[in-house]
Amino acid sequence: MHFVPASREVLAEVLLAAGPTAPTLCAGWQTRHLAAHLVLREHSMLSAGLALKPLASAMERELKSRADRARDNAAYAELVHEFVAGAPRFSPFALPAFDRAANLSEYFIHTEDVRRATDRWAPRVLDEKYAELLWRDLVRRASAYYRGSEVGIILVLPDGRRHVARKAKTSVAIMGRPEELLLHAAGRREEALVTFEGADEALELFNARR
């Protein structure tokens, strides 16, 4: 089942409901910056600046320019609607397989970046098939997410399934639902609803790098 189009719609709805200047969990970004990022990554070659340092400055300038223009509600709504319209034909994101691979987790994470940046929020109840796909995506990316960890990382689901994200002499088990484990892995450490188990030394070392 292809959940990405529905996830795009949900993310857009959350962005529109929040307005252009709401906080997000992305450091230094309001919702207008997040919306500009989402449009840029699908519409501009400058989005390569996320990985290529020579383009990073130009990308940041363009993102700021778009975000600045979206301060008022009307311009912001236009920016979000541009995101809803999807990637143009020349973009690799227009390919269904690439869209699924690149955006399944991306859209979930950014939806929660808006939802969980407020004082009042509750976790969503996700379709179990959707949650399973998020888990599979996390398993594929887990070693990259935790590559800087000085302790081993074991991700554990409520049903007992586990994945070793990083091996080391001492390890910490991180337990939670797939979507919460994904948020933790993607750096949303304080907002992810997870629990931890491990030796005191491992937990101390792990917490020192959170």
Brief sketch in words of this structure:
The protein has 210 residues and is α+β, with helices and mostly antiparallel strands. It folds into two domains: 4-115, no CATH class; 143-208, 2-Layer Sandwich (Nonspecific Lipid-transfer Protein, Chain A), CATH 3.30.1050.
What features would you describe in this structure?
It is built from 8 helices and 4 strands. The protein is of the alpha+beta class and 210 residues long. The chain folds into 2 domains: 4-115, no CATH class; 143-208, 2-Layer Sandwich (Nonspecific Lipid-transfer Protein, Chain A). Helix 6 (128-145) runs parallel beside helix 7. The model has no long low-confidence stretch (mean pLDDT 92).
Helical content (DSSP H or I, runs of 4+): 40-55%
| Main sheet strand line-up | 2-1-3-4
| Spatial extent as radius of gyration | 18 Å
How much of the residues is beta strand, in percent?
5-15%
Q: Main sheet, how many strands, which sense, barrel?
A: 4 strands, mixed
> What global shape is seen?
globular
Count of DSSP H/I helices? 8
Q: What is the number of beta strands?
A: 4
Overall pLDDT confidence = 92
Order of helices and strands: HHHHHHEEEHEH
